[in-house]
Structure formats: structure tokens, C-alpha cells
Amino acid sequence: MADKKKRRRADSDSDSASQPFKNLLKSDDQILQILESFTSSFSSSSISKPLTLADLALSTTCREVSDLSLSSVQSAIESLVLQLTHQILSGQGFSFTVPSRSSSNQLYVPELDRIVLKDKSTVRPFSHISSVRKTTITAKILSLVHQLCLKNIHVTKRDLFYTDVKLFQDQIQSDAVLDDVSCMLGCTRSSLNVIAAEKGVVVGRLIFSDNGDMIDCTKMGMGGKAIPPNIDRVGDMQSDALFILLVEKDAAYIRLAEDRFYNRFPCIIVTAKGQPDVATRLFLRKMKMELKLPVLALVDSDPYGLKILSVYGCGSKNMSYDSANLTTPDIKWLGIRPSDLDKYKIPEQCRLPMTEQDIKTGKDLLEEDFVKKNPGWVEELNLMVKTKQKAEIQALSSFGFQYLSEVYLPLKLQQQDWL
């Protein structure tokens, strides 16, 4: 019996050595009490109506789009075509006035904590050799969207590209003009009935209707439920979760889904598998606003992980015209943070040296207003640039494949260690 006790004690000591900080964990019930208290206080503070651009008396005129019905989009296109016809008949030529989406036309609004588009526009004339092709693409996209309005159908961005490959040449070009058209018409991109292919997935304590079918995300297997590309068909969201866990990488998502982390600590786990797509951004915002749940983000400890987090929270410059619909306010940076590398004793062989481009990206982020607003982010980024080290979420696997779900995340939640 004494030998068995010694073996158990030795196994426990070995486990603590291979999984640092496991001995600091409280019981699951105690951690759940901490989470319930946090979620309760968060829900209370979420009751007030969020600020909008219209509520602010900004000295700069800004442009925002809104959801429009198909008939409204159709009417807007037809009105635009009539204006073009008048231009041509009056001898002014054929040109589009397109809102500029350049970096110089972007504005970070601290009160809203998101990037918005200012009101500067550029002229895209058909008669000029430098813009004739882009003007033709713009006209083609408007024509295709008009067809979608008449037929009341959805197509993917890839479908749109293949209607005239020789004209578009590259899908990047047709995608960019699609955003221009959305800006010109004053509507969200989803109002155009053009969607991206399914990319994001969700699993955990969430039930919602998808085009009338009820989906229980606890019964979708390890792969989870693909986030519908058309957010309009999503409704009736119900959840007993305490928080939403936003995960950058597919590998970390699979680990947490297989370990049923959402049952141990009631949560909803969502990922866009890297760069955030429009559908995942819309879905995340819808969950946050309807369920009144805090969002905690798990990203790589590198400048690109923080950039991905900022796209979810503050918006992308490319789609700043629709930031009101695409951003999720007050996302907490849970990890992996630069200070975690030493705090959790991540082995040197699991850390990666930052490239010159990484360092430049980190320094550029330090100049962004949305980073400067958060002293904690500034401190972590400065540490990253100073040490010139980065690490992926998978670096935690050096302590065991389930260290992420069994120790790291529970301890983070217990200590409320987020920024």
C-alpha cells in the first residue's frame, strides 16, 4: 500500500513538472462561479444601447452603409444607370463616382472603437486609358447584381468571377469592385446577394435556426457546424453559455472541440480558420449582440494574431464602410500573449524568431490608434518587438496535447487573465 502511495505521489509530481501550473487550478465548480459572476456583470453593462456614428458630432463627414431590400438595391442600380445615361447624352462622357477606400480615407473613432470610412470619392472615367478596364468591370458587376435582384437568388463571389474570366482576370479584382459597388449603392455586401464560400465553423452551447432548420451545435461532432454564408437566414439564437471563445486556428479549434471543452466550461467556440471572413464576422457580432455574452480571443502570439483580433474588433480598412455591421465590440485578448511565453515557461525550442517583416508589422501596429487606446496591448506588443520572439498556440502542446484545454485555458479563466 505504501509503495502504491509513493507511485501515485511520483506520478503526480511528474505530471506537475510536465504540465506547469496545473497545481494552481481550482475546482471546476469554483472556476464556473468566477465565470458566472463575470458574465453576469458583463450582461448588465451590455443593456445600454450601443453608440452609433449618428450619435457623434464628428467634424469629419463619414460614410456608412445599411442593409437594403432587393427591390431597393435594384432601384438604386437603375437610378445610377439613368444618371450615367444623362451624363453621356449631355456630352459629359461615362464615369462612375466611387467612394475612396484608400488608407488616407479611413478614420478610427475611439468612441465607437472601430474604423469608419470618410466621405472622399474618386472619379472612374471610361474615357481614360488607366481606368477604362476598371470602369468596365464596375459596369459588369452592377449588371450582374441587377440580375440577382430580378431573380432573387444568391451566388458566390467565385460564381461572379467566372461570368467573365477574361475581363476580371483575377478574382481579387472582381472582389474589390464588388466592395466598390456596395459603397456606391450605400448597402451592405450581403444586400447584393453575393456571398463567400463557407469557411468559419461553430461548436458548443448554441442552438439557432438556419433557414428554418433548428441546429444544435453540441450535436455537430468534432467538425462543428459551418457558419452559413447568408446571415439573413440565421435566427432564434439560444444558449446557456457563459462566454464565446474566438479561436484563430483550426488546429486549436479541433483540440477544444474533441475535448468537449464547451461542456466542462459552458461556451460557444468559433473560428474562421485564419483570416476572418465576412460571414464569421457577421455571425460573431450577431451572437454577441443577441446573447449578451463576452467574447474571449485565442490567437497566436505574433503580430498577425493581433491583426486578426483587431479585424474582428475594430474592422478592416478594406471594408470600413460596413464596420457597423462587421465589428464585435470589446473582445478580450485571452492569449497567447507575449508575456505568456515566460509566464508559462514555453520552451525555447517552441518559440520562433521574428522576421524583419514581423518586427515591422509589430511596430506598425504600435502606431495604430486602436492599439494605442489599450495600454495592455501596447505593453504586450512592445515586449514582442523587444524580445523578437513569437509562438503559435500549438507551442503549448510541448506540455501535452491537451494542455491547452486542461490547464492553460482553465487557469486563464480562473485568473480572469485577459486584456
Automatic annotation (TrEMBL):
Keywords: DNA-binding, Isomerase, Magnesium, Metal-binding, Nucleotide-binding, Nucleus, Topoisomerase. Mg(2+) binds at E248, D300. Coiled coil: none annotated. It is found in: Nucleus. The keyword Kinase does not apply. Its main location: nucleus. Its cofactor is Mg(2+). It catalyses: ATP-dependent breakage, passage and rejoining of double-stranded DNA. Residues 243-413 form the Topoisomerase 6 subunit A/Spo11 TOPRIM domain. Its EC number is 5.6.2.2. InterPro entries: Spo11/TopoVI_A (IPR002815), Spo11/TopoVI_A_N (IPR013049), Spo11/TopoVI_A_sf (IPR036078), Topo_VI_alpha (IPR049333), TopoVI_A (IPR004085), TOPRIM_Topo6A/Spo11 (IPR034136), WH-like_DNA-bd_sf (IPR036388). The active site is at Y162 (nucleophile), Y162 (o-(5'-phospho-dna)-tyrosine intermediate). Residues 1-21 are annotated as: Disordered. Residues 133-194 form the Spo11/DNA topoisomerase VI subunit A N-terminal domain. Residues 198-234 form the Type II DNA topoisomerase VI subunit A all-beta domain. Belongs to the TOP6A family. Component of the DNA topoisomerase VI involved in chromatin organization and progression of endoreduplication cycles. Relaxes both positive and negative superturns and exhibits a strong decatenase activity. Homodimer. Heterotetramer of two TOP6A and two TOP6B subunits. This is DNA topoisomerase 6 subunit A.
